[in-house]
């Protein structure tokens, strides 16, 4: 397998750099999906494009029968930052490992799959695909992710996203501020409450978010505010508990 990887090292590097130089956001990874499926197709894989009703998702397969081993590829980028999380590397490693595994499949049987999972940065493509049956016939799934440590296994955090909006009442902030209801203040109070909550959560739990709408102009009392938030924990039980506490921060601010 190592020899197979060495033989295609240059191609994999070029593929990864090409994806890096053309960052695409979640569900918009048209170029990356095309390049990855083309590479797999050129190396003897059968390709299914647009699986799970997601245009940039795909499945490449080589061999037949069990065990069916899937290597997952991510290839979306972050807004403004591009491939800061190295999804271009994940994609290159996925197709490289799959192609390098072909001799083992030929010798021992079974099948190797590359499942392209779009929109991992913001929308959680794997969860959508799991609900739609992408992994139903898979015996084992794996992937790699770049990081600051070399490790064979790692513990991930369960995660849930929240989209929050507050609605107030617009008014001129100089002439009639008393007539307004400030929706931005509710969002700021929510952040203050979550900052206090962080003192009392488990060590590996995380709460983070951004304001996506804070008003239209400084001299208008904001009638609307919005934000995106992520809550993370080591297990689903504590995640549900922490999510409820975070939601209560928003309810209290309202």
UniProtKB/TrEMBL annotation:
InterPro entries: Amidohydrolase (IPR017439), Peptidase_M20/M20A_hydrolases (IPR052030), Peptidase_M20_dimer (IPR011650). GO terms for molecular function: dipeptidase activity; para-aminobenzoyl-glutamate hydrolase activity. GO terms for biological process: folic acid catabolic process. Residues 161-248 form the Peptidase M20 dimerisation domain. It holds the Pfam family M20_dimer. One of its GO terms (cellular component) is cytoplasm. Transmembrane segments: none annotated. PANTHER family: PEPTIDASE M20 (PTHR30575), XAA-ARG DIPEPTIDASE (PTHR30575:SF0). This is Peptidase M20 dimerisation domain-containing protein. It comes from marine sediment metagenome.
